[in-house]
Amino acid sequence: MTLITTPPTTTTPAGATPQTATPQPAASVPHLRLERPLEGRDADILTPAAIAFLTELHDRFARRRHDRLAARERRRFEIGTGDDPHFRADTAHIRDDPSWRVAGAGPGLEDRRVEITGPTDPKMTINALNSGARVWLADQEDATSPTWRNVIGGQLSLFDAIRGQLSFTNAEGKRYEVTAERTPTIVMRPRGWHLPEKHVTFIDRSGRELPASGSLVDYGLYVFHNAHALIAAGAGPYFYLAKIESAEEARLWDDVFTFTEERLGLAHGTIRATVLIETLPAAFEMEEILFALRDHCAGLNAGRWDYIFSIIKTYRGRGARFVLPDRSEVTMTVPFMRAYTELLVHTCHKRGAYAIGGMSAFIPNRRKPEVTTAAFEKVAADKRREAGDGFDGTWVAHPDLIPVARAEFDAVLGDEPNQLGRLREDVSVDPADLLDLRIGLPVTTAGVRGNVSVAIRYLEAWLRGLGAVAIDDLMEDAATAEISRSQIWQWIHQDRETAEGDAITRTYVEGIVEDVLAEAGRFDGDRFDDAAEIFREVALRPEFPAFLTLPAYAKYLD
Questions:
Q1: Which residues touch 526 (CB under 8 Å, ≥6 apart)?
Q2: Is the dihedral of CA 362, 368, 369, 374 positive or negative?
Q3: CA of 391: how far to CAs of 350, 412, 432, in Å?
Q4: Residue 13: is its pLDDT beyond 60?
Q5: Residue among 212, 194, 208 at smallest CA distance from 148
Q6: What is the number of alpha carbons within 13 Å of residue 371 lying toward its C-beta?
Q7: Are 100 and 351 within 8 A, CB to CB?
Q8: Is 275 helix (H, G, I), strand (E, B) or coil?
Q9: pLDDT > 90: percent of the chain
Q10: pLDDT band at 8 (very low <50, low <70, confident <90, very high)
Q11: Residues carrying an active site annotation
């Protein structure tokens, strides 16, 4: 263990205005303790000054984070017991005021027509920077398995990439370097408010010990080391904010940004955030979220996979009419998804914010031309719909999909950088539209087996440190695994049967788990047994963990 007792007020990064420390009694000074020894280049990221900055963030915001998480649980309980979400009466004045606008695009974010997403290991970082996309979502969240090595390794990759000094040589001797003349603008996604960082302990002013916040660790290390370098390069410290559920959670982030700008000597509004609307409660507070972040907000993103997961999680116990069919049938064209995405575009453009589309899971397979052709066709259709609906840009998960997505947005945007002028005043969405889960299709045996197989295979890779995994020619991450396991839980607890007449029970699903394990290509060091045990815990037990990553991280991840 490494005890860090540097007083928080000593933090002064390069380029920032020095501040005078106020001496405090040692016993009253909050501090962080690292639960792992430093290795390799860890000290380049975990400097005393950076740790002191993280300490300040936790001292100021950790309690509010816990309050917001408690409020989140209370609201989920209320909805689960019959109080459907609605557009808030207490914030109607915000929605009714036509005068306010968000800050909008920062330097380097003016044209976001194609964004590539992916984890931050060195190889994937280089591939993303060479991809030709306009923006790279550098993902420390759902596409990253939060091992300590991945958390710090991702920070090192970003540190080096921003300074033009990143290279990587794989085990076979192949060298990777950034060769693109124009690299994407980096938008980093820290972990959501709910995730802890168990390798760092925060000791508060009363001496109480708590795991650090994964959000504040990811965000704090990145902004502390890189804000000034990003600004000097003509961009800025930009972030995607994940799993937001309310305007109050967004306001907490806004206060974090404002404090950071004051502390690091940045002009107010330098930091820009794009919020993922990927939870059901957030869909009812889009304008309020934009308002809370208005000085720092660039836009909203339609985080489709987590949004579907959030609906299943929130309504898992509310009866048969809230049960969705096979995951593959919950497409972007079903009524509740159309309502959600059209409301997002309308809301964004009303307030001068960019609307960014989501990620289609289909990916090419260079060894299977027929798979690649099908992926291109499906992704093109998805992006054609988004561009036609008024989105200003979209996500892809593979470099080969960038030309496909760009062609669809070029056809609509032309030389214009966005569609902010399309106000979509034809859109009218009410709460019933957002909660219209009728699809009219059954659950099938193949759907049940597919969910079990995908969840276990994804978890096995996640336990080995891989956060984004190609499975059956789809890109799977934590969000899609959450859909798979939460559907299983709901189908069991709502006494569903497959179209073929099989009752979906724990015993039935346990038999499929055994089939998946028997069919798995086992190898030395695989984590299939642990993955199956996690799946049983999050899908087959009476209790429903809010996120599968919480028990899996606590028990199994190093």
A1: 460, 464, 520
A2: negative
A3: 13, 10, 23
A4: no
A5: 212
A6: 14
A7: yes
A8: strand
A9: 95
A10: very low
A11: 189, 477
